[in-house]
Amino acid sequence: AQTVTQSQPEMSVQEAETVTLSCTYDTSESNYYLFWYKQPPSRQMILVIRQEAYKQQNATENRFSVNFQKAAKSFSLKISDSQLGDTAMYFCAFMKPGTYKYIFGTGTRLKVLA
Amino acid sequence: GAVVSQHPSWVICKSGTSVKIECRSLDFQATTMFWYRQFPKQSLMLMATSNEGSKATYEQGVEKDKFLINHASLTLSTLTVTSAHPEDSSFYICSAPRGAQDEKLFFGSGTQLSVL
Predict the structure, then answer these.
(1) Which of A7, A42, A61, A100 to mutate to test the interface with B (most CBs of B within 10 A)?
(2) What is the C-alpha separation between B101 and A61, in angstroms, rounded?
(3) Closest Cα in chain B, distance from residue A44 (Å)
(4) Residue B87 has pLDDT above 70, yes or no
(5) All residues at 6 or more sequence positions from A38 whose CB lies less than 8 Å from its CB, including other chains
(6) What residues of chain A lie within 8 A of the CB of B48, using their CB?
C-alpha cells in the first residue's frame, strides 16, 4: 500500500522569503502522479503543482517548484517570494494513474509572516 | 477551469436525523466522483467512489448503510448521512476528475456537518 508522509506539521516564513515543504512517499509503482494541494482558511482545495513520475524534469508553476527525487521517493515543494496569501494548509498527494484515488499526507500548516 | 459545486456549505442537525449533501459538476460530465472526509486538523480520507448509474464503492471501515451515495446523473452525486450522530460531525468534500486526459481532481468547496 502507498503511504505519504509530511514530517513538518507547521512552518512559518517571512514575507518575500523562500520556504521548502517536505514530502516523502512509499510505493512499489514505477509510474504515478504526485500533487501539492493548498487548503486556505476557506477550505477550498486548490491544486498548486503536479508531477508525473516518468518525467525527470521538476515541475514549476510561477513561484512554486518541486524537487522530485524518484529514487529517494521525495517530493518537496519550494515556495519563492512568499506572500501573505500563501498562508494555508499544504497537502502532498499520491495517485496511481487512472484511479483518481488520492492518498494524502497529513499536511503542513504554513504561515507567512508580514 | 472545471468547477465542482457542493451544497450546502454548512449544516447543523439534530442527532438521529439525516442530512443530504449535493455535489455537482457544472461544466463537465463526471461519471465518477469521490467523497472525502476531513476531521479537524487532519488530512482528507477517501470515503467512497461514486459511480454514475451503478453502486458506489466504499473504502474499508466506511459504513455504506450510514453514508448513502447516489449518482443518478452525469453531473450530480449525493451523499446522505443517515441517522447522524455527533461523531459524524466532520468536513465532507467531493471531487471529480474532468476526463481521461486530465489526471487531477477538481474539488467542491466542502460541507461542514455539525450534529448536535
Answers:
(1) A100
(2) 20
(3) 5
(4) yes
(5) A45, A46, A47, A48, A86, A88, A89, A90, A91
(6) none
DSSP letter for each residue of chain B? ---EEEE-SEEEE-TT--EEEEEEESSS--SEEEEEEE-TTS-EEEEEEEETTS--EE-TT--TTTEEEEEEETTEEEEEE-S--GGG-EEEEEEEEEETTEEEEEE---EEEEE-
Q: What integer pLDDT is reported at residue B101 of this predicted model?
A: 62
Predicted confidence band at A1 (pLDDT cuts at 50, 70, 90)?
Answer: confident
Confirm or reject contact between A95 and chain B (CB < 8 A): yes
**Cβ separation A44–B110 shorter than 8 A:** yes
The whole-chain average pLDDT of chain A stands at 95
CA gap B15, A103 in Å, rounded:
31
Out of B49, B100, B104, the one facing A35 most closely (by C-beta) is: B104
Q: Report residue A10 as a C-alpha cell.
A: 507547521
- Do B91 and A43 lie within an 8 Å CB cutoff? yes
